[in-house]
């Protein structure tokens, strides 16, 4: 069959993605991406360590990032994104900036991380007081709060799951329940952390229910990367992506919010 009349595949712009070895949500990332952009994913080497601050440090070492970005150079992405929240906040604000610089040196293209994209998203939304949901242990969640505090962001309430593995298997209903329990009346946005936690389909539901912007790790990563390309992420009823979906004033859940750290 002669298919030459089709003219070949459409030109594609490329986003390189460096993910931890246990990242399992490739398809979720693609759901935010328009048709004329391709994602080129690579993973850090396996290490036999559970989800923890130690793992976050191991998967974000500059040598590891450099090797991953150099592998992506073969397909010439226009930007590289490091898709891991804990790996990009574990070193604080200065550590996140140093990671971006290391990736840019290795690939000679602009680079960003999930945690850096989070701060960009909060600035875009004008949110300085946020509720927080994480699948992490106490220590990893505390490290995220310290990163946010360093950037001038106050956490008004949080819920965490205490998981050390298989985070991608958490069902949507648990994410929704944790989100409801973390929101307090002064929260200006809700952040659901971890790129290995499924969130795409719960964002519209939670925004409609809580009446505040709801952002997630994978969402902010794709939003920031695509914005640097001069294009937009796609997604139904998501305040970060569509100003018309932004509302003020949360509707408080009936459950008692989780108390602060002891």
In words, what does this structure look like?
This protein is 39% helix and 16% strand. The chain has ten helices and eight strands. Strand 5 (129-134), helix 7 and strand 6 form a beta-alpha-beta unit. The N and C termini lie far apart (70 Å).
Q: From the helix content, strand content and strand pairing, which structural class follows?
A: alpha/beta
Radius of gyration: 18 Å
Q: H/E element string?
A: EHEHHEHHEHEHEHEHEH
- Low-confidence runs of at least 5 consecutive residues: 249-262
For the biggest sheet, the summary is: 4 strands, parallel
Q: In whole angstroms, how far apart are the ends?
A: 70 Å
Count up the helices.
10
How much beta, percentage-wise?
15-25%
Using DSSP, what is the number of strands?
A: 8
Q: Helical content, roughly?
A: 25-40%
Largest sheet: spatial strand order: 2-1-3-4
Mean pLDDT, all residues? 92
Form type? globular
Layout of helices and strands, plus pairs?
Elements: E1 13-19, H1 26-31, E2 37-43, H2 53-58, H3 62-72, E3 79-82, H4 85-89, H5 92-107, E4 111-113, H6 114-125, E5 129-134, H7 138-150, E6 154-160, H8 172-182, E7 189-192, H9 202-210, E8 214-216, H10 217-228
Helix pairs in contact: 3-5, 6-10
Nutshell version of this structure?
The chain has ten helices and eight strands. It has 262 residues and is α/β, with parallel strands linked by helices.
